[in-house]
Amino acid sequence: MAQAHSGRQQSTRSQQDQKLEIAIAMLLRSGVFAAAALVLLGGVLLLRHGGAHVPSYAVFHAPGDPRSTALPSIASIIAGLRGGSSAGIIGLGLLVLIATPVARVAFAAAGFARERDWLYTAISALVLLILVFSLLHGR
Amino acid sequence: MTILTFTLAIFATSLVAGLLGALTGLGGGVVVVPVLALLFHVDIRYAIGASLVSVIATSSGAAAAYVREGFSNIRIGMFLEVATTLGALGGAYLTAMVSTHAIGIVFGLVLLYSAVASFRSDHDHTPRTASDPLAKRLRLEGEYPVAEHRQSYVAQRVPAGFGIMFLAGGLSGLLGIGSGAVKVLAMDQAMRLPFKVSTTTSNFMIGVTAAASAGIYLSRGYILPSLAMPVMLGVLGGSLAGSRILVRARVSTLRMVFAVVIVALGVEMIYSSATGKL
pTM of the predicted model, to two decimals? Predict the structure, then answer.
């Protein structure tokens, strides 16, 4: 099928791809800036109420441990936000950041579907499936 | 040391790491992890968690600039992301099973390889347009601007490239880095794609690859908000500044200095891990 394309059609296709890529890049950039703004806001609040204790990251604590300061799930980040914790705001920023490339793949899948390129719609959907699996079932 | 001074010190260090990472094309993660582990005595799992977050930010933040140049290839990137995301899942699972010493040693070896790879000159081999049946079927082809015309290319040795990409994803998931050097190896050396196409497409893929292990890192408690915050903001700021400078400056001297630093960090990582200090 690719051989049936004339050179002219090929370049139209690559221009279409280029447009899709630019739209995706803009999406990525807004996602990163939104995430950075949330992380910065949470960080400023965290440091303002941080106190004078010395943070130590030298010893690893698993999430179940009361000394762990990680927010290991979407539920714990939402709980942190509800409780007004500044770490919760940073956690939300990190979620937005992680979601940005996932949105990129979903956007690309939709773009390929619009171009009726079913092979690449399927490939993008497979990548999306791997990402969603990791986010929901990764341990 | 209060939390404020500690956070500011980590922010400043990450800023420099991001700047150097962008100027040399190695990325910020590969610098920030050994510095956090060796200088700030951060547990390597917290260090790779913070680094992974900064890698997603840098890759996604820089994508707009690369896309406009018209070199990156969205189809090749998406196809190879099947390999890198699967590899990243495997690598992230592996992090919990191997000792932190083993992670440190592998990290040191990757640092040494990255230093060598950063010297590879960015000349292009003659673009291959020979028909590769698999590449044709998957439409792993494209064209890129050269002087006044557009040069077309077709990917070669697709299975080899796919395999190396799986390894690149695995290293990314295991070490919390973008592993751009290995991604470029797969596209530039194995698949014979033009160098510019390889580097820009690699940058595009890094964020998606890192996102595949981010969920696993998060649920394992590797990503601490208070540590990820200064690292992400620092590396992102540094690399955005670095990519602006890059347009104006020749960086060969800097690249040399940086390679020496990377080799020193790599040797120190291997030594500290082997003697059980890490």
Answer: 0.90
Q: What is the overall mean pLDDT for chain A? A: 85
Radius of gyration (C-alpha) of chain B in whole angstroms: 18
Contact (CB<8Å) A42/B229: yes
- Across the interface, whether the CB atoms of B207 and A104 are under 8 A apart is answered yes
Residues in B 13-72 with any Cβ partner in A closer than 8 A: 40-43, 45-46, 53, 56-57, 59-61, 63-64, 66-68, 70, 72
Q: From the CB of residue A136, how many other CB atoms can be counted at a distance below 10 Å?
A: 10
**Closest by CA position to B104, among listed B165, B56, B43, B51:** B43
- Does A134 sit within 8 Å of B219, measured CB to CB? no
Who among A55, A62, A123 is closest to B6 (CB)?
A55
Interface pTM (ipTM) of the complex?
Answer: 0.90
Long-range Cβ pairs for the range A79-82 (8 Å, 24+): none
